[in-house]
Amino acid sequence: MKTRRICQFLLPVLVANGLSACGNIEPWVKPYERDRVADPIMFLDGDPVSSAYIQHVYEAREGARGGEGAAGGGCGCN
Amino acid sequence: MRSFDSVMRNRIPFIHVLAGCLLLASSHAGFAGVLPEDRSDILYHLYDGGGVEIDGPSVLVRKQVAKNVSVVGNYYVDMVSSASIDVVTTASPYSEERKQHSLGMDYLHGNTTMSLGYTSSDESDFDATTYNFSVSQDMFGDLTTLSLSYALGDDVVGRSDDETFTRDNTRQHYGVGLTQVLTRNLITTLNFETITDEGFLNNPYRSVRYADAGSPLGYSYEPELYPHTRTSNAVGLRARYYLPYRAALQGEYRFYTDTWDIESHTAAISYTHPMDDWTFTVKYRWHDQTGAHFFQDLFSRTEATNFRGRDKELSPLTSQTLKLAASYEFLSDGWRFIDRGTVNFSIDLLTVDYHEFRDLTSGALVGEEPFYSLDADVVQLFFSFWY
Q1: Residue B151 and residue B195: Cα distance in Å, rounded?
Q2: Is B259 helix (H, G, I), strand (E, B) or coil?
Q3: In this predicted complex, what is the ipTM?
Q4: Less Cβ around it within 10 Å: N or C end of chain B?
Q5: Rg (CA), chain A
Q6: Which stretch of DSSP H or E encloses residue B88?
Q7: What is the dihedral of CA B208, B212, B214, B218, to 10 degrees?
Q8: What are the pLDDT digits (tens) for B243-285?
Q9: What are residue A36's phi and psi, to 5 degrees?
Q10: Is B142–A77 a contact, with Cβ atoms under 8 angstroms apart?
Q11: Please, which residues bridge with residue B168 across strands?
């Protein structure tokens, strides 16, 4: 039941993400337009040692776990 | 009798967190289709709150060793001194030390990055080993990154007062991550993670209390008894937006549910503002959860239910955190083999309000004690070097 609830939340986002990517294979953010997402202040996890530690603190102090780490990249900077 | 706080037990050991974060997130945190940057971090961490003090170092070194291969190593120590509410009401304060080592490797082939990792953690009554593997693929002009991850953990739980006591846990993580550049100013990431546990999942020292008219206190204690399996699902969404004057705004949300009937919502918002060589961040985080179905602060009698727990982290609770962080960049022009460095300081002011776990030190009538709450300061000071 709860898995269904997660799927109900997850699927539309996945589909939206998928469609946005597949609908136009040609990158809609051109390489020369990626300076902002390549800026270090835009890194989702710029200091992995620090974020792993604070995530550990939360998992010790709360009953929930997972779903926060393992952020992919994708800034398309190369 | 020795006991311990739940900081290190009965949750995902830090090595599992580390496996997920260091060996995957760091690999792809910023750049698609390239190996992680060569860097070293030297961190001092301190947790101080609720009668518990935990501090120690963490040192990470990452280096590219071949054209397509990067390796990473991490050494982490927790020095624990605990007189938590659990400990002062049922046992004696204690101190202990936990050491953890991890090694990982990333291999880049085209737009695919494969990562392998191994982590081990040792302390006097708890050993944990984790193996993890992940694959990350950049697609659609490098605007999309899909990551798949798997980790297998084996824990051995002991007791400091009984050398013959050993119990095993097996834990498996399955993760899927999708990161998407939506516009030139907006990047989002969606993570889904399922974790399964099987084995001895409760704390071998902790007790539950039950009403006992024959006791001078009006209650007595008996050992916890948890289910031997647990499966959790979590989905998290993050979005980071570049503001026109070069600053960043980030929003986060996570929904969590598990077979112990814990359900939670977690949300956070943060703002990052660079200023010359400085970068400042402020973040607010909110978390609210229901309790496990077998949690009770006071059971009606001994062995009242099939499963019993009084771990305060399994109680319904609400936590809030305010984070303040500053980073200063130095050696911007390089020095010898170092390209640049930063010194970073952060403090997280954490407040946890428990909605069913009561404070037995208050001396109030049994079952009418005030609900417990704690404040904790979480401090990090670290140096980072890129080379």
Answers
A1: 9
A2: coil
A3: 0.89
A4: N
A5: 17
A6: helix B85-90
A7: 90
A8: 999 999 999 999 999 999 999 999 999 999 999 999 999 999 9
A9: -75, -45
A10: yes
A11: B156
Q: Cβ of B303: how many Cβ atoms within 10 Å? A: 10
Q: Residue B152 burial by CB count (10 A; 0-12/13-18/19+): exposed, middle or buried?
A: middle
Tokens read off for A76 = 């398309």
pLDDT digits (tens, 9 = 90+) for B200-251: 998 888 899 999 999 999 999 999 999 999 999 999 999 999 999 999 999 9
- The model carries a pTM of 0.86
Helix/strand number for chain B, H first, E second: 3, 18
Q: Following DSSP, what letter does each residue of A10-77 receive, concatenated?
A: HHHHHHHHHHHHHT--S-SS-GGG-TTTTSGGG-TTS-HHHHHHHHHHHHHHSS---SSS--------
- Dig out the tokens for B383 from the structure: 């140096």
Rounded to 5 degrees, φ, ψ at B314 are -95, 0
Candidates A8, A68, A77, partner chain B, best to mutate (most B CBs within 10 A) = A68
Cβ–Cβ < 8 Å for B294, B210: no
Shortest distance between the Cα of B215 and any Cα of chain A, in A, equals: 31
**Residue A31 and residue B191: Cα distance in Å, rounded?**
25
Q: Bin B56: left if φ > 0, else alpha if -120 < ψ < 50, else beta.
A: left
Tokens 């010790």 map to which residue? A60
The two tokens of residue B145 are 């990154």
Amino acid at A53: Y
User: How many other C-beta atoms can be found within 10 angstroms of the C-beta atom of residue B106?
Assistant: 25
The DSSP line for B279-299 is EEEEEEEEEEEPPPTTB-SSB
- Give Cβ neighbours of residue B297 (< 8 Å, ≥ 6 apart): B209, B310, B315, B356, B357, B358, B367
Query: Which amino acid makes up residue B128?
Result: A
